[in-house]
UniProtKB/TrEMBL annotation:
This is Phosphate transporter. It is found in: Cell membrane; Membrane. It comes from the Bacteria. It is a multi-pass membrane protein. InterPro entries: Phos_transporter (IPR001204). Belongs to the inorganic phosphate transporter (PiT) (TC 2.A.20) family. Pit subfamily. GO terms for biological process: phosphate ion transmembrane transport. The chain crosses the membrane at residues 60-81, 93-115, 158-179, 200-219, 225-243, 464-490.
Length: 496
């Protein structure tokens, strides 16, 4: 933490840093009481746990989920952002981007929570990211509207967000039907008696599923805030956070060897195009990542950047051997090289014989750049856990009483939560952000349909309206706040 106060930051930058970190933690706090209410809905509604015990229990397991998360989702979210804003996140545009993302996401989450609508924090954040990317391309005179948005990653993420509610609806309904065949316990499928706790074995089952959903929610949703905090730290305190200072010498030397080997392959693929200067190479790779159109200059730029990475890392004992001012530039080079390799490989631009000389570089680079300090995980975990303990009641009533025409039974709640925790855990493994809200709400609806309990169409219509509006509203909010924030940062605070 001493890096924040090493004298290298101006007062306006320190203020912006504090505000940005506060907003990022505020986003996770709101996420806690907005999304985690889904996890405690069943145990509270069925009187398996008292409300305060349930939210504290859920908050604790959200906390553990964040602490043990892999970070894959965090950097998957970051990959949705325009490449030039990621590379230059410490600029005025980078600050405006971060504030636009966080403020728009918090506003929409608070609005939907106020009306008791289980909307998706994942959709909210991704819509804001799209808005920032579209406005950034609109304000740039040298590119087409929409260029710079990582549409491939957006497509993968959107597919996960669209498919997961269907999975929740179908699988939870099927699981309930299977349970009725295998578990001949009538009390599992009756309406919960008012103000009376269920039998001990049912209570244990529901607490277990609540625990699983809470842990899975923390491990997936908590990473969104972590990714944004890392983006802030990389831009403002690059000497400490641009690269993982704990990476060992043998790893750094292995990256240098792979970079030399890859540079030779890229030189051949450049078809005689000369290596550009460092600035021109960065511009060429940024242009490729925006447009997806590769030419010999793209490969010449990759050869130049790969060789530059090798020159910096050859013989160093650790990142501390690299001058602090050079670490942000090295991270930018590593990011451009690894992302370009991934995009070119996905487009089938590498021959099978060349892949063993190129792909190891991309994989090793991630060990140096995709890291999250323990204190960041702990701060996000605390914010998410505390948020879980506040404001849960509005969402719990919607999930427990307003989706189906009948009251939620023990079996329905357990089925929906088992499917939710499994789906979220699978998405976490693959680095995909999914919506706890969508999966669980859809799961409850699926069990109501399977049980022939009927669905409250007014509630479903409101839920669908909130889900459908989340993306366009947040795109608009993100775009408007980015343009307004950029004006303030440039003209009021005087940052460049």
């Amino acid at each position: 933490m001493d890096a924040f106060f090493d004298g290298g930051l101006t007062l306006p930058t320190l203020i912006l840093l504090a505000l940005a970190l506060g907003l990022a933690l505020g986003f996770e706090f709101v996420n806690g009481f907005h999304d985690t209410a889904n996890a405690v809905a069943t145990v509270i509604y069925t009187h398996s746990l008292r409300p305060m015990v349930a939210v504290v229990w859920s908050g604790f397991w959200n906390f553990l989920g964040v602490l043990t998360s892999s970070g894959a989702v965090a950097f998957g979210i970051v990959a949705l952002l325009p490449v030039e804003l990621i590379v230059n996140v410490g600029s005025a545009a980078g600050f405006a981007m971060v504030f636009a993302l966080l403020v728009s996401a918090i506003l929409w989450n608070l609005g939907t929570w106020y009306f008791g609508l289980p909307a998706s924090s994942s959709h909210t954040l991704i819509g804001s990211i799209l808005g920032v990317g579209l406005m950034n391309s609109y304000m740039a005179a040298d590119r087409a509207f929409g260029e710079g948005v990582n549409w491939g990653k957006v497509q993968d993420t959107a597919m996960a967000l669209l498919v997961s509610p269907v999975v929740g609806f179908v699988c939870a309904g099927l699981l309930l039907l299977l349970a009725k065949v295998l578990i001949k316990k009538p009390e599992l499928y009756r309406d919960p008696p008012q103000d009376k706790a269920p039998p001990l074995w049912i209570r244990g089952l529901l607490v277990l599923t609540c625990t699983g959903v809470s842990f899975a929610h923390g491990s997936n949703d908590g990473q969104k805030g972590m990714g944004l905090i890392m983006l802030i730290l990389i831009g403002i305190v690059p000497a400490t956070y641009a690269l993982d200072l704990s990476v060992r010498q043998e790893t750094l030397n292995a990256i240098a060897v792979d970079a030399r080997a890859a540079a030779g392959v890229f030189e051949r693929m450049a078809e005689g195009a000369s290596r550009p200067a460092p600035e021109d190479a960065s511009a060429a790779l940024s242009q490729y990542l925006r447009s997806g159109k590769a030419d010999p200059v793209t490969f010449a730029a990759l050869a130049s950047k790969s060789a530059a990475v090798a020159s910096v890392l050859e013989g160093v004992a650790g990142i501390s051997d690299i001058a602090p001012d050079s670490r942000r530039a090295l991270r930018s080079d590593l990011y451009l090289v690894s992302e370009s390799i991934g995009k070119l490989n996905g487009a089938g631009r590498f021959a099978a014989a060349d892949k063993p000389k190129i792909l190891p570089l991309r994989d090793k680079v991630k060990t140096l750049t995709t890291f999250i300090p323990t204190w960041v995980k702990a701060a996000v975990a605390i914010a998410l856990g505390l948020g879980t303990m506040i404001g849960w009641k509005r969402i719990v009533v919607t999930v427990g009483e307003k989706i189906g025409k009948a009251h939620l039974t023990y079996g329905q709640g357990a089925s929906a939560e088992l499917v939710a925790m499994t789906t979220i855990a699978a998405a976490d493994i693959y680095g995909l952000p999914v919506s706890t809200t969508h999966v669980l709400s859809s799961g409850v609806a699926g069990t109501m349909a399977a049980n022939h309990s009927g669905l409250q169409m007014d509630t479903l219509r409101n839920l669908l309206l909130a889900w459908v509006l989340t993306l366009p509203v947040c795109v608009f909010l993100g775009a408007a706040l980015f343009s307004g924030g950029l004006y303030v940062v440039l003209n009021v605070l005087g940052l460049q």
